[in-house]
């Protein structure tokens, strides 16, 4: 009789890039890997702003898809408003 097959959790990692530090991505993904496989990795932010320039190398290195979220207002959390 074959051993039962254990299923590995398929996880989504959705990052608010406007409020997260790109240097924490590697430790974050290491923690996620303890619970399953990150099949979807997306980072949301207004990529036209200067504040997210440091993200590019991290997005490429970790195969994270950047999703553009326009700023609807001025100031902190501007991209959080629909």
Briefly summarize what is shown.
This protein is about 20% helix and about 25% strand.
Provide a descriptive summary of the structure in words.
This protein has one domain. It has helices at 25-33, 56-61; strands spanning 10-16, 37-45, 65-68. The chain has 82 residues and is α/β, with parallel strands linked by helices. Strand 1 (10-16), helix 1 and strand 2 (37-45) form a beta-alpha-beta unit. It is elongated, with a radius of gyration of 16 Å. It has a three-stranded parallel beta sheet, covered by helices on one side.
Keywords:
single chain; 82 residues; alpha/beta; 3-stranded parallel sheet; 18% helix; elongated
State the helix count.
2
Q: Give the H and E element order.
A: EHEHE
**In which order are the strands of the major sheet placed?**
1-2-3
Give the helix/strand class: alpha/beta
Approximately how much helix is present in the residues? 10-25%
């Amino acid at each position: 009789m074959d051993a039962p097959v254990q299923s590995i959790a398929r996880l989504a990692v959705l990052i608010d890039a406007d409020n997260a530090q790109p240097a924490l991505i590697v430790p974050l993904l290491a923690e996620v890997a303890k619970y399953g496989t990150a099949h979807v990795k997306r980072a949301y932010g207004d990529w036209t702003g200067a504040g997210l320039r440091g993200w590019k190398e991290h997005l490429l290195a970790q195969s994270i898809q950047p999703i553009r979220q326009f700023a609807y207002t001025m100031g902190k959390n501007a991209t959080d408003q629909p």
